[in-house]
Amino acid sequence: MAGQAAAKKPIKILFVGGYGRSGSTVLDLLLDRVPGITAVGEFRHLFGRALGDNELCSCGLPFHECTYWTKIIAVAFPQGYDREQIRKAVKTFNTITRVPQLQRPTLMTPALKRQAKIYAEAYLAVYRAIATVSGASVIVDSSKYPMHGLFLQTQPDIDLKTMLLVRDPRAVAYSWQRHRVRPEVHWETREMPRHAVIRSALAWNTANKLTQMIGNDHQTFRLQRYEDFIDDPINTIQDIASFAQGKKVTLDQSIFDHQLTAPHTVAGNPARLGGEHIAVQTDKEWETQLGSIKKKIVATCCARQMRHFGYRPAASTAILHSQ
């Protein structure tokens, strides 16, 4: 009976939402070092880039050769699983057109309900296996894509908290224009996607808006600016960990030190590979390298949200006010 009760206990998940290139990878690596927390990276890619393409886990091994994930998948699916069926279900809901059905499940057709069941059962099985294997009480899912978070919100077996991670959109737009190789694609040389600044600006607006739909009370929703994390990393990680676990967490400088065990995260920034010591440093290259016209385009598109989050659209640098 005790085992059955434990199996029905809601899974505590901290969903990190927002737009890409906002610093979630470094936050993942640090949160994974907090006792009771395990970070899994951009987990919506589990059945695609990880189990399908066999990209590198953050430990440096191809996903299918990582003993940590091999054990988790075996615990989650002792009878096996249909990866393509699950991928299809995830794709069905990971699109903005599904917002109405996720907010009001009664609008789902029988076919959509079947896809939702496949999606939910697969991810719940893996989340539970992660909790069992890692022993962690909180799982940090930094998928960022808000549709995944909106889907998780519909699941009664998930005790969900959400953190919207934002970064100055001009820095984000500049990052999406840089040439960067994807080392996790170990079978060939492939660069990360690159986007025009106006696409990045509009996507930044949309991702932030949708993430804020997941939750808006102080108990289940947190706004985190990347720049504030850079200014005070230890206290920021303490606050995020305390928010996620629902209790006070105290950390010190040792959280940045060399670790004997590697994290095991899916997808994300190349920074997750190749080092146990984590350096948190300011990256203001965009201030001099992103042209003034492009800065104005981004600031014009994002002005309203920039002001809401404490950024000054008219400034050429990321000047913030206190929240």
Quick synopsis:
44% of the residues lie in helices and 11% in strands. The protein has 323 residues and is an alpha/beta fold.
General description of the model:
- 44% of the residues lie in helices and 11% in strands.
- By secondary structure, it is α/β, with parallel strands linked by helices.
- The protein has a single domain (2-282), classed as Rossmann fold (3-Layer(aba) Sandwich).
- A five-stranded parallel beta sheet has the order 2-3-1-4-5, with helices on both faces.
- The chain starts with a helix and ends in a 14-residue tail after the last helix.
- Mean pLDDT is 92; it is low at 1-6.
Counting helices, strands and paired strands, the structural category is alpha/beta
Number of helices: 14
Proportion of residues in extended strands: 5-15%
Helix and strand string, N-terminal first?
HEHEHHHHHEHEHHEHHHH
Tell me the total number of β-strands: 5
- The CATH architecture would be 3-Layer(aba) Sandwich
* CATH domain class: Alpha Beta
Largest sheet: 5 strands, parallel
Poorly predicted runs: 1-6
The fold-level CATH name is Rossmann fold
Helix content: 40-55%
State Rg: 19 Å
- Inertia-based shape: globular
Strand order of the largest sheet: 2-3-1-4-5
Number of self-contained structural domains? 1
Mean pLDDT: 92
